[in-house]
């Protein structure tokens, strides 16, 4: 393995610059939101990630407080769905992450050569 065989990885986080909270919208919360979108349930999303429901609930609440936006619409025993704002944020996060990863790989090849 040589440096030319390696590739960079980018971990994006999105924050509320006005918040004093420490919670960020990053890879973990994005994965949790993707799970809710695909399963319709925070509990199912948490289980698929090997996470306790109580931890997933705490992460969602802390992120909602930090970002100043509701992320989930909870319907009791009927599950949860992402809010429109969360869908917009998640889609932007995924798009930006992909673009940053592609650009970092291009730049790495440029600077390592």
Automatic annotation (TrEMBL):
Q: Which domain of life is it from?
A: Bacteria
The record's section on SUPFAM superfamilies has: Winged helix' DNA-binding domain
Question: Membrane-spanning residues where?
Answer: none
The record's section on InterPro entries has: LysR_HTH_N (IPR000847), Molybdate_resp_trans_reg (IPR051815), WH-like_DNA-bd_sf (IPR036388), WH_DNA-bd_sf (IPR036390)
All copies of the HTH lysR-type domain together span: 36-85
Identify a single GO molecular function assigned to this protein: DNA-binding transcription factor activity
- Its name, as the record gives it, is Molybdate transport system regulatory protein
Please report the organism this UniProt entry assigns to the protein. Denitrobacterium detoxificans
């Amino acid at each position: 393995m040589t440096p030319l065989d390696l590739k960079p990885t980018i971990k994006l986080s999105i924050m509320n610059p006005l918040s004093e909270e420490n919670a960020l919208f990053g890879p973990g919360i994005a994965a949790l939101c993707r799970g809710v979108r695909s399963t319709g349930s925070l509990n199912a999303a948490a289980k698929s990630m090997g996470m306790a429901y109580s931890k997933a609930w705490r992460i969602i609440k802390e992120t909602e407080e930090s970002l100043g936006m509701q992320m989930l619409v909870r319907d009791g025993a009927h599950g949860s769905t992402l809010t429109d704002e969360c869908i917009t944020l998640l889609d932007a996060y995924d798009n930006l992450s992909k673009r940053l990863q592609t650009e970092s790989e291009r730049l790495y090849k440029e600077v390592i050569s």
